[in-house]
Design a protein that fits this description.
Helix content is 23%, strand content 29%. It is built from 10 helices and 25 strands. InterPro entries: KIB1-4_b-propeller.
């Protein structure tokens, strides 16, 4: 009994010593931070702090958030993203993409407790954020890392910043159909649903802080415009031959207008209106950036890689997949097909993107995965992947779509490929193949 009491007394003393030690350390640290002469980092000049913060923000928004969390002075000296996440383009999370969970875990599923996962295309970092708004919304697109949401009943459009929670409201998409009817374009109720599910968006903000959006409507071969101050969407009075591919870039929407037969494809740029009168914008034809000869590329897809625009397609020549810079076509120099994109991997399929393979296991570097060509190029029921270096085809995973259920466990590359088909985001399923409906569920 004496030994027990002695041990208890010794334990209490040790706890007291630890407590005093921690308290003393904390007080000494507080004094150092309060004294600029003893705290070099906390005493950085405001101009230097702003310079470092701007460079960190240019790389990644979440790194900027961590930078502001270092100390109170750094936090006070730099602007807070919350409240400005949408209206200030500097705070757009451009490298972030919503991650498809699979297993039927759609965004807003009760099992996720309101959490939605995101991953960084460059660093492979994963984060989970609370987004309860998915209970009655569907995801249409992810321009600049922002989530383009459609209300399931009213079709109202919301642009959500996933990390700050900032939201801006746009008119219901259903408001576009009366405008199309005035142009002689009448659409059935069933087709209305289809035409508002497949859109590509670009976001821009003017000096007054008004957020504008341009939507590419691939099923209608048109684009539409609205700002946060509008009550309806305004479609263009002109239409393209075939809106094949679209991509937001620099606040504008770049589209590939595919010609018929041997006609060259046109790369078009659609800007938001410079004034507040959308009616004048609707009649202005798009700006043609460059044409792409059919002998160079047929049915080209557009993708952004390393802050440049590229075209991906085939030319029926010795190379089944060709990757060229848009800048080369624009400058009139011979467009030489690229044979290396380093550690990058490109995914083509509805929505196109490039990711860094070094940070994402099971993603092959210097490759192009053709999500839209499931079941054809690399064998029956496979997901084909083209190696730019040696010009060979392979399949992304072992097994075949058509022979039964998808092989489990799903590799990370299959989740990444699913990002190219936005409908899977809303279903909580992983990219699969169904012989009845083509691209289907797992």
């Amino acid at each position: 009994m004496r030994n027990v009491k002695a041990k208890m007394a010794t334990h209490q003393v040790e706890e007291q010593d630890i407590s005093l030690h921690k308290g003393g350390t904390s007080r000494r640290l507080s004094r150092r931070l309060a004294d600029p002469a003893q705290s070099t980092w906390a005493a950085l000049h405001t101009d230097l702090l702003e310079l470092i913060a701007s460079r960190v923000l240019a790389i990644d928004l979440l790194d900027y958030v961590r930078f502001r969390a270092v100390c109170l002075r750094w936090r006070v000296a730099t602007p807070c993203p919350r409240g400005r996440g949408v209206v200030d383009p500097c705070f757009h999370p451009r490298q972030w993409m919503m991650f498809p969970e699979g297993g039927g875990l759609y965004p807003g599923h009760p099992a996720l407790l309101g959490y939605v996962s995101f991953f960084n295309l460059s660093t492979g970092t994963f984060v989970r954020v609370t987004l309860p708004c998915f209970r009655n919304h569907s995801v249409l697109d992810c321009p600049d890392g922002l989530l383009l949401l459609r209300h399931n009943e009213s079709t109202a459009i919301r642009l959500l910043h996933p990390f700050t929670g900032d939201v801006v409201l746009f008119p219901p998409l259903s408001s576009i159909f009366p405008q199309l009817a005035k142009l002689g374009c009448f659409i059935s109720d069933f087709d209305k649903i289809q035409h508002t599910r497949f859109v590509r968006a670009s976001v821009s903000v003017n000096l007054a802080g008004t957020v504008s959006m341009v939507l590419g409507l691939s099923g209608l071969d048109r684009v539409a415009y609205a700002s946060t101050s509008d009550r309806q969407w305004t479609p263009t009075s002109w239409k393209m031959k075939r809106l094949h591919s679209a991509l937001p870039f620099g606040g504008s929407l770049y589209v590939v207008d595919v010609g018929w037969d041997l006609e060259p494809s046109r790369i078009l740029r659609i800007n938001p209106p410079e004034d507040s009168n959308p009616s004048s914008w609707s009649a202005i034809p798009p700006q043609m950036v460059v044409t792409c000869p059919v002998e160079l590329l047929r049915m080209p897809e557009m993708v952004e890689y390393n802050s440049e625009l590229f075209l991906v397609g085939d030319n029926s020549g010795c190379s089944p997949v060709v990757l060229v810079r848009v800048a080369d076509l624009l400058n009139g120099v011979p467009a030489m097909p690229l044979t290396s994109i380093g550690d990058q991997a490109i995914f083509i399929g509805g929505w196109n993107m490039a990711v860094n393979s070094k940070s994402l296991p099971s993603v092959q570097a210097n490759s192009i995965t053709i999500v839209n060509a499931i079941g054809g190029l690399a064998g029956r029921g496979t997901l084909p992947q083209y190696d730019l270096g040696n010009g060979t085809w392979s399949q992304v995973f072992d097994g075949h779509f058509l022979d039964g259920p998808m092989p489990r466990p799903y590799s990370l590359v299959l989740h990444v490929a699913t990002c190219c088909q936005r409908l899977f985001w809303n279903s909580g399923k992983i990219l699969g193949f169904n012989t009845d409906i083509g691209l289907g569920a797992e």
